[in-house]
Amino acid sequence: MIRIGLTSFSEHDTLTGKKKSSLFEYAGFLPLVELDTSFYGIPAAKTVENWLTQVPQTFRFIIKLPSPLTKQKDLAPEESLQDIYQQFLKVMAPIIKNGQLYCFLAQFPAQFKLTKENVRYLEGLREMFQELPIAVELRDASWYTEGFHDKTMALMKKLKYSLVMVDEPKLLDTVPLDLTITNPEFVLFRFHGRNQTFWKDNSPEWRKKRTLYRYNQTELNDLAEKIQQVAAEVDEVAIIFNNNSGGDAAGNALTLKEILNLDYQALNPSQLGLF
After folding, report:
1. What is the 3-state secondary structure (H, E, C) of 41-71?
2. How far is 108 from 125, CA to CA, in rounded Å?
3. Among 89, 163, 241, 258, which is most exposed with the fewest C-beta within 10 angstroms?
4. What H or E segment, with its residue span, contains residue 13?
C-alpha cells in the first residue's frame, strides 16, 4: 500500500479551502499525516486521544521523536533519556494499540555524523524502542560516502530501521535520494523540495525559506517511478511532502496521487461530499 501525506494537518488550505483546518477535515483527503508537535514537547494524553477520534481506522500517523532522543536538545538536569522515552511511549500508547502508528520518525541533525559514538547511540535507541517501527533520517553525507555506504545500510538492516529516502537540494554535504531498502516491512519517503539557495539559511526567517519549493510535473513523474520501484519490494510505502513554506505541499501531494492512480477509500467525508 502507498500512502501520501503532509507534515501537520492544519496549514494546507489547498485541501480544505481554509487557512486553519482540523485533523478531521484533513483526513477527508489524505490517509496519512506526520506530526512534529512531540519533537518540541510531548503532547498531553488527551491531545493524542483526540487525534484518534477525528480519523478513520485506516488513517496512519508518523510521529516525530522528542528532540532529546535525536540529540537535538540537551537534557534538563532532572531528565534522562529513559524518562523521556517512557513518558513519550505512555502518551502514544493509544495510537500504537489502535494499530494506527505508521512509524516513529527519528530525524537526526546534520551534526549527527558517522562516528562510533553515534553508531552506538543508534544501537541504544533500538534497544529502547524494541520492536516498534522507526524510520531514521540522516542529514549528513558522511553516512553515504563510498567507503561507508554499505556499512550504513547493513547497520540499518541489522537494527530494523527503515532509512528514510530523502529528496532535498543536492549540495556537497547533503544526502542523496538513496533507494536502498533497509526494512522490507515499510519505507518512508520525505520530500523537502530542492531549494538550493536557502537550504542552509539560518536567518530568523529560515522556516519560510528552506522548503520554499514546488515540484514540477517532470520531477513528480520521476519521483513516482522511484516510488513504484520501491513499492514493488516492500509491504508499505509512505510519502510525506514537507515543501510547504509557500503552501506547495498539498498541491504536489494531490498531483502525485493522480500520477500513481491512487484511490483512497474510507476517508472522512469532505465538505464537497456532503452536498
Report:
1. CCCCHHHHHHHHHCCCCCCEEEEECCHHHHC
2. 12
3. 258
4. helix 13-16
Angle made by CA atoms 132, 122, 182, in degrees to the nearest 5: 65
Model's pTM, two decimal places?
0.94
H-assigned helices in 54-115:
81-97
Instruction: List, run by run, the mean pLDDT of 10-residue segments along the chain (275 residues).
Output: 96 88 95 95 95 97 97 85 94 97 97 97 96 97 95 98 96 91 98 84 72 94 98 97 93 97 90 44
Q: Quote the Cα angle for 207-211-216, to 5°.
A: 155
- Whether the Cβ atoms of residue 137 and residue 106 lie closer than 8 Å to each other: yes
Consecutive H or E run containing 34? strand 32-35
**Residue 121 and residue 96: Cα distance in Å, rounded?**
24
pLDDT confidence of residue 197:
77
pLDDT of residue 271: 56
Q: How far apart are CA 72 and CA 208, in angstroms?
A: 20
Cell numbers at 116, concatenated: 562510533
Residue whose C-alpha is closest to residue 139's, from 187, 199, 84: 199
DSSP strand pairing (134-137 vs 236-241): unpaired
Q: How many CB atoms lie within 10 A of CB 241?
A: 28
Q: What is the dihedral of CA 146, 147, 153, 154, to 10 degrees?
A: 150
d(C-alpha 200, C-alpha 206), whole Å: 8
Q: Which residues, other chains included, contact 19 with Cβ-Cβ below 8 Å and sequence gap of 6+?
A: 11, 13
pLDDT confidence of residue 223: 98
